[in-house]
Fold this protein.
Amino acid sequence: MSLLEVRGLKTYFYTRRGVVKVLDGLNFALEPGQIVGLVGETGSGKSVTGFSILRLVRRPGRIVGGEVVFEGRDLLKLPEPQMAALRGRDIAMIFQNPRTALNPLITVGRFLEQVLHFRAGLPRNRTRDEAVRLLSAVHIPDPERRLSSYPHQLSGGMAQRVMIAAAVAARPKLLIADEPTTGLDVTVQAQIMRLLRELRDQTGTAQILITHDLGLASEVCDAIAVMYAGEIVEFAPTRTLFATPKHPYTRGLLASRPKLGQTGEIPGIRGAVPDLMNPPRGCRFHPRCPHAFTRCRVERPRPVYVSPDHYATCFLLEEEGHA
Amino acid sequence: MRVLRYVLRRLALLVPVLLGTLFIAFFLTRVLPGNPIDRVAGPYISQEKREAMKREARLDLPFYQQFYLYLADLVTKGDMGTSYTTAQPVTRDLLQRFPATLELVLYGMGLAVVLAIPLGVLSALHKDSPVDHAGRVIAVVGVSVPVFWLGLVLLYVFFLKLQWAPPPIGRLPPTMSPPPHVTGLYTLDALLAGQWDVFKAALSALALPAVSLAVTAMAPLARMTRSAMVEALESEYVRAARALGLPQHVIIWDYAFRNAVIPILTIFAGVFGYALGGVVLVEFIFSWPGLGLYTLNAILSSDFPAIQGAILLVTTVYVFIYLLLDLAVAAIDPRVEV
């Protein structure tokens, strides 16, 4: 059984100017211990997916449909107290900007001890030792002393390690990492990614890695979901995705990565991400797609499986006879 | 040690501030029409006698000399001159009246805080709900009701009709003598002396004026509490705390409120300072023998020494309030260094 199965998830934002359908029927699944990357441009709905799973979408956003099945239970049907009991304990999340995600007025120690006491259920007299152990597990030097640091005294990478330590304190089965390395130095990025991977290898924590960086995702993820305008347009094991991308958008993304030794212009994808208030009819990618034909402009493509673990939402595949 | 140095540095700043305000007070009193000699002497006194009185009060001297001599007396002898209205040294007048005002303002502000902060927190937690709207209505009514009108209505209802409150004739009934002087705050002194009946009498005399003061101070406090809490509750760290599943009480108090306290304190310092000045209407209605009433009378009768003394005192208190505010903020926020 999958650890997490997202089916037809719809999250809309009811703004004054109209309804923005940020997620309009999202499907994907995650196996225990697996790391899946959600890759897409800014505004493609990656972060909203993470917040929707935890049911922490902010107003005016609202989850209006679908299922988020975690260990056989539909989270969207749970009463709020049960959902709250699950956050941090079964599913935890880390954020894009670790320094604003930490309360500026409490120390690292107090923060971790609170998480350990309330979420991992540790008695007060054992939280301090455990906090030290957590900090050293995320490779923070001199953890004892770090307990009395305030967030503004930490570097970005250090703050993200603290966040990770807090997120894994209660040994969740799923960790959602929302752009965990954006804004960090490249060397620190690599360290954080290594840490996340190490975490999975040691404790079997499944992860959803939300990123706009396909290269980064390819280094740690077992499978990658490519998101475009609130939909997953292609889902495949990382290697398969890179070897045989099926969706024109994925191909465009892969082609637009600069390669070493390459000269001349880097091919991009023409056009821009559509306005989700008035998304294009039919396939949301068709205005930018070099292969678009009549059907793409009127009908919405459904996932087409080219193999049991690889699908793409593109009519070209049906034409090729995969359906 | 660093804190002590900071405090001393701030107190040193008090000197130029006081010099400046004193200069302005000196200047304004002497430029505006009216002077104490005319008041005291009346219209029928001889010109020589009037001149003699002026000389005695140094009012015949040039402005800068008056200023210099006043400063010299103040610094060397702590002498602020003698009030023309009370015929007492101004220093003594102030020492008697300031505790009365301070006690009233402390109770008023205490009440305002106790009412406004829970109201603001509740409004923020139930943003845009009926609770929030009700809170806003209470706050708006509080700020729109004139304090003198409120005082009169309270008196009408609780003194005249229900007879729960004592008459508006000061801090204690005329038959009761004040508790032994320690702080000058009657309720505190009465407690220290173990005089229960005096404590109760002082407290019931405080009730209506303190409520009048509190109602007007509540609105800005409640509004700031609400907006600071709303902002904190929508912050990234509260969202992260939710994602970690921290319990609601930790999120509300340790995350949101702790961060909201700083703007609330800042507004509170302003409201407190404003109340020290605005208390005059309340003192007038309740015949409260405080600083506000004293200053008002001093201004109305061109009592120069009394005006100068009162302004010096209020300025000093202001500076102290903001010093305390900065120390409190530094204690709460590790990013602020003193």
Notes: DSSP finds 13 helices and twelve strands in chain A. The radius of gyration of chain A is 21 Å. The CA atoms of residues 245 and 251 of chain A lie 6 Å apart.
